[in-house]
Amino acid sequence: MDIFRVLTRGASLKKSKDLITDYSLPTQNKKTNKNDSRKDKLLDNQVSKEIDFFKTNKFKRKLDELNEEEQQDEDHDDINNNNNNDDDDGNIKPKKITTEDEAKKLRKLNKSKITGDDIPLPIGSFHDLISRFEMNKQLLLNLEQSGFDLPTAIQSETIPISLFNRDLIACAPTGSGKTLAFLIPLLQQIIQLKGNGTGNRSNTLKGLIISPTKELSKQIYEVALKLSKNLNINVTLLTKSLNSKYKNKIITKNKYELIITTPLRLIDLMNNLDSTDVINFQNLKFLIMDEADKLFDKNFILQTDEILSKIVNGNSNLQKLMFSATIPSNIEEIAKSIMINPLRVIIGHKEAANESIEQKLIYTGNEEGKLLAIRQLIQQGEFKPPIIIFLQSITRAKALYNELLYDNLRVEVLHSEKTQYQRDQIIENFKKGEIWCLICTDVLSRGLDFKKINLVINYDVPLTSQDYVHRIGRTGRGGQIGKALTLYTNQDNQLIKPILNVMKQNNIELQPWLEKLVEEKTSKRKKIKKNIERKEISTVPKIVKQKKRQKLEMIQASKIRKENE
Ligand SMILES: Nc1ncnc2c1ncn2[C@@H]1O[C@H](COP(=O)(O)OP(=O)(O)OP(=O)(O)O)[C@@H](O)[C@H]1O
């Protein structure tokens, strides 16, 4: 199979109406002729199951396979009580999953592993939710109007689990639809609570979503807003300005039923209450932790712990749900300790990257070689925007930005030293296509859903396999095909080992010497040095820098002289 053509074809960027950028640099988009499109169709059919992780648009194939396996036609009512499974266009309509046997087959195809007691049946379509859970029709309409017709693998499993009020640990690949997997049931549950009036006055806080970064929280908020259109649910994003507008009384004054926040913003609110105010979290029914493993890592654990101690303790009715593309076992243990009889959903391999991402390592020898590699990609027409480049520190991100600024690439740099306004502007411009190449630190590695990112480059090797999975997960989302390149030098021999393991999980063949590195016994390996000290990113020779510095010093000295005269 011409896998390379399949992958590169999917990665080429069609200009969309709202993209105002001409992406013709560095290579022109070829016009496709009829033959090409026929070839593309053929290639489409060749896309193997392995790179077809995002099952949404492939439901037809999935059902074909289901039918094949069954080797008999099972007539189930579809959403319209139509016994004929074909619609007018000849597409097969999704089935209802009504038996354990059907569930088993669906799970096999989706590579879903569910563990725990009393596992509910998955859903075969969103319409399944009407008969099984009296799903709100407006919510369903909002879903359809946003263009979501069929549930992805993670949504099939976790929506019923959430609606049965079960605690949940869910792990599914990047870009596979986890946001809707928690938002759909959450909104439905809030509607139900409001409807039956079980002591929940209309605006009391019912649902809380915590995510590690402001950007991700904002993104979840935007999806939640769209999905809750005409549902009469008050949703907000906790921000500094909102906290000050309501004088930290957003929760105590029952302003919103669903709040989306970062840990820091929530703690800020809780710590700045008036002495007379006490937040009562007893009405809070749903706690969702997105990028849960991040929220439990060393940078967030203290904040998370503080929040959980105030929210979870004594609230036995609180449903707790955790989502991420990576959940290491130690974090899972901590998560379980605050849950009651949780269910565990794993789609695919727990520590693998999304299978629709082509992963490559590029050995550059030394630091200077990395810049050369980037320039070579540009020359060879491989640097096709939109592109995200990750580096290990703010200083390095700025330095690379300064280097690429003059390559006519419409490049920008984003890191935590930028103001929130600048960060929002950069993201907006990147989404619009005004910025082609976004250079950043790990601040953007988690959760962000940029459409059709063509290429992710790890200019610096990420420190953990989880960082790697999330960074490269900015491409290959929502059923698209993506490409990820990781540049490495002699310094990185140990650091790439976790990456090699991820690649192995994804069944990517490694060169023999890399394979050897993976197999090397732990005792033989040097201790992995985190935060590698790297040579400065610059193509300016030392002598030129020295002269520049001297010139600058002379100008400053002359200024001082003039001031003193
Ligand atoms: N059922 C669906 N049908 C079609 N597209 C979907 C569906 N569910 C989600 N998507 C789209 O898939 C993309 C990725 O979804 P989302 O951002 O929720 O991924 P994720 O699993 O949370 O990724 P990450 O692990 O990186 O946070 C989004 O653009 C979203 O709109």
From TrEMBL:
EC annotation from Swiss-Prot or TrEMBL: 3.6.4.13
UniProt cross-references to Pfam families, sorted A to Z: DEAD, Helicase_C
InterPro entries named in the record: DDX52/Rok1_DEADc, DEAD/DEAH_box_helicase_dom, DEAD_box_RNA_helicase, Helicase_ATP-bd, Helicase_C-like, P-loop_NTPase, RNA-helicase_DEAD-box_CS
EC main group: hydrolase
Record flagged with keyword ATP-binding: yes
Residue stretches making up the Helicase C-terminal domain: 356-518
UniProt domain Helicase ATP-binding: residue ranges: 159-345
Reactions that this protein is recorded to catalyse: ATP + H2O = ADP + phosphate + H(+)
GO cellular component: cytosol
Alphabetical GO biological process terms: maturation of SSU-rRNA
Annotated keywords: ATP-binding, Helicase, Hydrolase, Nucleotide-binding, RNA-binding
Biased composition (Acidic residues): 66-77
Stretch list, region Disordered: 66-99
Molecular function terms, GO-annotated: ATP binding; hydrolase activity; RNA binding; RNA helicase activity
Assigned protein family: Belongs to the DEAD box helicase family. DDX52/ROK1 subfamily.
Protein name per its UniProtKB record: RNA helicase
Organism of origin: Wickerhamomyces mucosus
